[in-house]
Design brief:
Layout: H1 3-6, E1 18-22, H2 26-30, H3 32-39, E2 43-48, H4 53-58, E3 65-71, E4 74-80, E5 83-88, H5 93-100, E6 107-110, H6 131-138, H7 145-158, E7 165-168, H8 175-190, H9 192-201, E8 207-210, H10 218-228, E9 236-238, E10 243-247, E11 263-265, H11 269-292, H12 298-302, H13 305-319, H14 331-343, H15 351-355, H16 358-375, H17 381-394, H18 411-415, H19 422-430, H20 438-441, H21 444-460, H22 462-471
Parallel strand pairs: 1-2, 1-6, 2-5, 3-9, 6-7, 10-11
Antiparallel strand pairs: 3-4, 8-10
Bound molecules: D-mannonic acid.
Length: 472
Amino acid sequence: MEAGLHDRLYCDPTTTGGIVHLGLGAFFRAHGAVYMAEAGGWGITGVSLQSPGTRDKLRPQGWAYTALELAPDGEKPQVVTVLRNVLVAPEDPQAVLDVMAAPDTHIVSLTVTEKGYCHEPSTGRLNRDHPDIRHDLANPLPRSAPGFLVRALALRRAAGLPPFTVLCCDNLPENGRVVQGVVGDLAGLIDPALADWIEAQGAFPSTMVDRIVPATTPTDLDRLEAASGYRDEAPVMHEPFRQWVVEDRFCGPRPAFETVGAQMVADVTHYEHMKLRMLNGTHSSLAYLGYLAGHETIADTMADPVFADFVRGLWHDEIIPALTPPPGEDLAAYADALAARYANPAIRHRTWQIAMDGTQKLPQRILGTIAESRAAGRAVPGLTLAVAAWMRYTSGRDEKGQPIEVKDPLSTRLAALWRDDPAQTVAGFLDLAEVFPPALRDDAGFAADLSAALSGLVRDGARATAADRVSA
Ligand code: CS2
């Protein structure tokens, strides 16, 4: 059956392909890799920073895989053959540095999730106490994404090669600036002259990335095999929609992304805010409230009229008033399109999956809107309820008293913050300087609103509390 995929291969393993990608998760394989494949003329050397699972599944397929589009009215497979090789960093970090430092590598792109940048989410600066950063300061063979970028750039500088463009594809605001900041901080600690060279010659364009990509399940593999006649051990599932807005500031050659629908712009900031706050902010809100209310997926949560109305209120009453629309974007139409995307029943995007890593996600998705709105005197009761739902979720018990598997780098600390008195619980959470900006930590009115929202959740449950909000 594998031959079905092999038949479609054109890989040339003798070059890096020009692009090295760190963090070979499903999102990149369903988004950036597809744009890179369609643009033509380039290939990707993928790097898994943690485990060999994806490499081991892709290798027998010659690195090819299927990207399966899931539309409400049917499925459409596309075989993606842009990967040239996959390396597993912990097995051989030197091999990863070598390929990043190769003369024909021009771009290093990244999807390492929010926590992969080893930064403090509330400030965007490098967390020097992060165990991987401490390791990377003391050892030439790195573990972290910033460590690989810095050590590989050092090798290029020593070899007289230009730097590669660092192309961040994670859901962070001004994501190019964030990665530039952590790389600059780390390089400065290792070799200030290297930091100066990167500053002068490097490029870190920011990008806004968008495509909903739920985790692939064993059932997906079987369904795809039945429909296509070949077995793919590592397909990715995605919605029809995709968007990629990229700052056109590369320090070397790049694929012709504009020929395949990417928007090349001078400044991506307003696009990032629109997407992070309107999409990811409501995704997280629906994930916590929906999970607590017993809904398994975002589509299930949207099929519940209470939450469909609740999320419309978030968009129109709280988030849109705080945004500057990017050129040519109509935010009300953007919200309508999001509602349709969320409701797509073919996408089984679990609330539990989106609820992951809340401490890394909330600042850019929700807390920024809350802080700016409160400073401007605008009420944000729905987003405040979403933050309270996150707190309730991280207690580790659902509304029926069943355990929740809370995945978050700070999960142990979060679980210890739970008290019987909501005001005390809120005070403990607001002490998390990594998560809450100073303006919110010092805002007594916000603490009081959060405590009231949390009391409502504990007393009445997520659905009834959201219903109260909608009818208020
Ligand atoms: C989601 C995102 O898992 C999550 O936190 O909100 O992965 C979301 O699906 C994408 O950003 C959509 O572009």
